[in-house]
Structures are given as structure tokens and as C-alpha cells.
Amino acid sequence: MESEELLGNLNGNGNEPKQEKKQSPLVSLEKDLEFYAESIKEVSVEIMVEGISQAPIFIAHQHEVKIGEMILNREELNTSWTIQASTLEEFVEKGIILPNKKEHFLKNYKKPEDFMCVFVVVPEGANFIYYPYAKK
């Protein structure tokens, strides 16, 4: 057995493990959301004005998801995240938000004129965030 296997990930002198500085994917997401903000806001307004939904939801991902409609493709735009547009209604229909949790979701839903509601999908799971259109 090699000493590395025995010692786990201790460094050469037996001290604590070396901490690799791995940047959170949320850093690149914030950068992309700032870049995308104007386009996302336009789509959000369109969804509400056309009466499709009063609760637009945007899905940010780096793989493939089967919800919503792609509006910003990371490969075409040379960014890190793809954005898809969806609605609260579709999230309920697909079972992501349970029907009995819909009211709770709406109580916490921030004003769509000021914030984008983003469902962030990463390999570890997914969660909702609210990101301001104009950072103060």
C-alpha cells in the first residue's frame, strides 16, 4: 500500500489536507445573470403581459433540463449557464412544486418587475434564488 493511500489526502509532511480552491459555480452564475438581466426581464414582462403567467420562473443550468423553453444558450453566447423560461404553472404541472405548496411559493415570490426568480440546477440538486435586475 502506498503512503498516499494510507494517509488519505494529508500533504507530504503529515499536516492537514491541502485545500484546493474550487470556485463555486454560483460565481459564474452571478456573472451570467448580470449579463443576461435585460433579456430575462424582457421575457418576464412578455410572459406576464401576454397573460401566460404572473409568476415567471427561469431555469439556470449547465446540462440539460426538460422544463421550460430555452431562451439563452450558453454555447451560442459563450457563457457558463443556459437559461430556460418557464412558469409557476408548469412547475406545478411537472410536480416540481406540489399543488399544496403553490400558495406558500407565491407568498415568498418576489416582485417580478424587480427580481428574476431563478431555479438553479446543479449536479448536487436544485434551488430557487431571486436575483435583482439592477444591483444597487
Characterize the structure shown.
- This protein has 136 residues and is an alpha+beta fold.
- The chain is built from five helices and five strands.
- It has one domain.
- It has helices at residues 3-7, 25-49, 74-77, 88-93, 102-108, and strands at residues 56-61, 69-72, 82-87, 115-122, 125-132.
- The protein has a five-stranded mixed sheet with strand order 2-3-1-4-5.
- Strand 4 (115-122) and strand 5 (125-132) form a beta hairpin.
Give a brief description.
By secondary structure, the chain is of the alpha+beta class.
Pick out the low-confidence regions. Answer: 1-20
Largest beta-sheet characterization: 5 strands, mixed
Percent of residues in beta strands = 15-25%
Q: What is the approximate shape?
A: globular
* Distance separating the two termini: 56 Å
Count up the domains. 1
Which whole number gives the mean pLDDT?
85
Topology order in helix (H) and strand (E) letters: HHEEHEHHEE
Which radius of gyration do the C-alpha atoms yield? 20 Å
Number of strands: 5
Summing up helix and strand content along with how strands pair, one would put the structural category as alpha+beta
> If helices are DSSP runs of H or I spanning 4 or more residues, what is the number of helices?
5
What proportion of the residues is helical, as a percent range? 25-40%
Give the strand line-up of the largest sheet: 2-3-1-4-5
SSE arrangement:
Layout: H1 3-7, H2 25-49, E1 56-61, E2 69-72, H3 74-77, E3 82-87, H4 88-93, H5 102-108, E4 115-122, E5 125-132
Parallel strand pairs: 1-4
Antiparallel strand pairs: 1-3, 2-3, 4-5
Biased composition (Low complexity): 1-16
Region (Disordered): 1-25
